[in-house]
Specification:
heterodimer, A: mainly beta, 6-stranded mixed sheet, 5-stranded antiparallel sheet, globular, B: mainly beta, 7-stranded mixed sheet, about 45% strand
Chain lengths: ~110, ~120
């Protein structure tokens, strides 16, 4: 049973516009959510995170929103740049399982010039 | 520089052979993890280890084995019992404190192809 879901396998956006990547989860015991970015044939790199006690976290062009009642989070990238083209993974952490993460399937973002 | 290394980058093996993938970290992290990535399936956890000489099965442990004899090292053996071993394998490490919000740090990955 997939506890973290990214239902859009791919997303195409024009350079300069906003990219919105979505993630849904089913387990209310998650206390922290993270987004990772991955280029082909490389390991994922941490992008941004949010605690379950917050509803928004911003870091430069990247903002993550958390809607706990809907069990939904989203990553906004504004403005999108061609270098943002990558696979983005949403991940969630249980409050009592240390550093262990549950990952979604990933969304491949393509930013067109 | 601190980080995680995986070797080799590309690995080819004949069907029926066991193969061991290397993972080393110098971040002084307690926990280490192994994932495999397949197209459309994201990152699936194979095994993880919270401390030396201890490890737990992840979601897809069948056909794999691990050891954790040193804090810095967490090798993964893909055995001949693994039915679909061709994949991209990722190793990660993190601190292990229950209240920690530190993230997992990933190595560059190993692409295993079984012929």
């Amino acid at each position: 049973d997939q506890q973290v879901k990214q239902n859009s396998p791919s997303l195409s956006v024009q350079e300069g516009r906003i990219s919105i990547l979505n993630c849904d989860y089913t387990n209310s015991m998650f206390d922290y959510f993270l987004w990772y970015k991955k280029y082909p044939a490389e390991g994922p790199t941490f992008l941004i995170s949010i605690s379950s006690i917050k509803d928004k976290n911003e870091d430069g062009r990247f903002t993550v929103f958390l809607n706990k009642s809907a069990k939904h989070l989203s990553l906004h990238i504004v403005p999108s740049q061609p270098g943002d083209s990558a696979v983005y993974f949403c991940a969630a952490k249980y409050y009592n399982q240390g550093g262990k993460l549950i990952f979604g399937q990933g969304t491949e973002l393509s930013v067109k010039p | 520089d601190g980080g995680i290394t995986q070797s080799p980058k590309y690995l080819f093996r004949k069907e029926g052979q066991n193969v061991t993938l290397s993972c080393e970290q110098n971040l002084n992290h307690d926990a280490m993890y192994w994932y495999r990535q397949d197209p459309g399936q994201g990152l699936r956890l194979i095994y993880y280890s919270q401390i030396v000489n201890d490890f737990q099965k992840g979601d897809i442990a069948e056909g794999y084995s691990v050891s954790r004899e040193k804090k810095e090292s967490f090798p993964l053996t893909v055995t001949s019992a693994q039915k679909n071993p061709t994949a991209f394998y990722l190793c990660a490490s993190s601190p292990w404190e229950p209240t920690s919000t530190d993230t997992q740090y990933f190595g560059p990955g190993t692409r295993l192809t079984v012929l």
